[in-house]
Structure prediction request, 192 residues.
Amino acid sequence: SSDLWWKKKGAGIQDRAYLSGYVPGMAEGMSKLRGEVMTEQRSQFEAGLQANSIQYILGKFKDGTPNDMPKWEGMRTELASMYGAKDANDLLYKAAKQAADRGDVKTTAQITNLFDQRHSDGTPGLLRYLDDKEKLVNTARHVALGQLELDERLQDKQREKAREDKMFSITQKMVKEPDADMADLEEMMKDP
Prediction:
């Protein structure tokens, strides 16, 4: 392959030693580039594992599975075997944060209830996250309320559009049929 390269790129150069000074630098650059590519691939792989682990946790909480510390400890073991999760407690916190950011109050409350429980061996469980417990639940409530307000506004706009369409139909009928029966028009004006 180097001979082919030399034929294409080195055409006209008589002294092959001319390029020998570049070879050590090229090898070092290629090695560095391979290392960077491997690091990036590893970080993408780990991010994928973390995302899968968080989705697994959220799915289990939606099912109502881990509602106490012994069940969570069993789930931590599953996470370690399935996804190679090193710090399952950190993943649990991230799952609570993700649920809160989506406005899932129930799941957030279920997860954060584990924060102040001790492990079955008596050691402090997730106490390092205890300060964020209320903040996460409040965030979930705030997001959920915002979603409800948006839904209400959307429904209000839909109702207003329906009223406008109805008034347009009535006006159109009055213009086309000036002698129309008033009882028909009053019936059209009633809200559905």
